[in-house]
């Protein structure tokens, strides 16, 4: 029995829920849903929102140092898009009963997870190209199937996010293409960035399928449509021809198409590194969290002023109504 109804309601609710999932239709905020489904979505959507917000930092680092006004304008727009993605996703999580304050608090207390990729440093301009190409590229592979996620507000948020991610990926590819057509030093800088980001980008799809215990349930609920390894394979298949056009080398000597297995054969991924970074011990975890905390504290007066303004507006409109 839940707070929403009786045992009978739960049985009827479960049956209605199962029918919607079976028919590939959508669950909406006011519909009955299993508690575990709600909790899974809150966890996944809030982690996704945190990733977008923390993900502004590695590139924000280069806004003041972009090599031209045009590059600066593009990078600024891209980073602002990521802020927007965070906001749509926090709103989607709020439709499930999570509050924005709780989610923010969990992030700045270091209790919430976010994508491990954003804990790597961005020492050169080529990192801007590589993040767009590899990190936004991996995000697209992950997120396009989420446009069909069974929870309505999540799926709809993903549609808009994916359109923007495609722009991000192309702008990154174009930065790298420009560098690869430049001087030898620029080409080296691009290759070095690809060497540093390639493996962490492959880790973005999460642990291998046999070590991903929640995946089967998420697939049954039609939140997730493809397994981690399937998405990783699809991503590699997308990168190989693009790397050839760029003239960069993907840093895996074992990488080849396995005709018999109909899959990409790769070297072993270093999952120890993934788990270390996820546990907060990556190169930039502490800096990223401290920046987020500082921004939250420095923005306190804006939130207070906005709340006070809203309170006065509400009072004024009550006065008008009276
Ligand atoms: Fe994004
Ligand atoms: Fe993006």
Write up what this structure looks like.
- This protein is mainly α and 322 residues long.
- Helix content is 67%, strand content 2%.
- Strands 1-2 form a two-stranded antiparallel sheet.
- Strand 1 and strand 2 form a beta hairpin.
- Helix 6 runs antiparallel to helix 7.
- The longest helix has 29 residues.
- It is globular, with a radius of gyration of 22 Å.
- The site of one fe (ii) ion (FE2) has 5 residues, from helix 4 and helix 7.
- It is an enzyme of class 1 (oxidoreductase).
- GO terms for molecular function: phenylacetyl-CoA 1,2-epoxidase activity.
- Its EC number is 1.14.13.149.
- InterPro entries: Aromatic_CoA_ox/epox, Ferritin-like, Ferritin-like_SF, PaaA, PaaA_PaaC.
């Amino acid at each position: 029995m839940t707070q929403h109804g009786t045992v009978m309601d739960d049985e009827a609710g479960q049956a209605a829920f199962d029918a919607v999932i079976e028919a590939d239709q959508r669950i909406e905020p006011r519909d009955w849903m299993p508690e575990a489904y709600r909790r899974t979505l809150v966890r996944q959507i809030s982690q996704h929102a945190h990733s977008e917000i923390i993900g502004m930092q590695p590139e924000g680092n280069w806004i003041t140092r972009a090599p031209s006004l045009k590059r600066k304008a593009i990078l600024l727009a891209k980073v602002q898009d990521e802020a927007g993605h965070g906001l749509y996703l926090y709103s989607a999580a709020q439709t499930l009963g999570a509050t924005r304050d709780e989610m923010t608090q969990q992030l700045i207390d270091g209790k919430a997870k976010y994508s491990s990729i954003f804990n790597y440093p961005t020492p050169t301009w080529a990192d801007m190209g590589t993040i767009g190409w590899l990190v936004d590229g991996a995000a697209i592979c992950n997120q396009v199937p989420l446009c069909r996620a069974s929870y309505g507000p999540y799926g709809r948020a993903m549609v808009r996010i994916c359109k923007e991610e495609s722009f991000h990926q192309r702008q990154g590819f174009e930065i790298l293409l420009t560098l690869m057509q430049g001087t030898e030093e620029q080409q080296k800088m691009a290759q070095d960035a690809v060497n540093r980001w390639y493996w962490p980008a492959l880790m973005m799809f999460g642990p291998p399928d046999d070590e991903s215990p929640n995946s089967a349930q998420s697939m049954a609920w039609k939140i997730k449509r493809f397994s981690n390894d399937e998405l990783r394979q699809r991503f590699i298949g997308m990168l190989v021809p693009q790397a050839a056009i760029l003239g960069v080398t993907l840093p895996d000597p074992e990488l080849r198409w396995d005709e018999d297995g109909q899959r990409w054969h790769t070297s072993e991924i270093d999952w120890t590194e993934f788990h270390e970074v996820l546990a907060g011990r990556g190169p930039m975890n502490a800096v990223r969290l401290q920046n987020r905390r500082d921004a939250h504290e420095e923005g306190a007066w804006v939130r207070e002023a906005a709340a006070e303004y809203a309170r006065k507006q509400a009072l004024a409109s009550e006065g008008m109504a009276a």
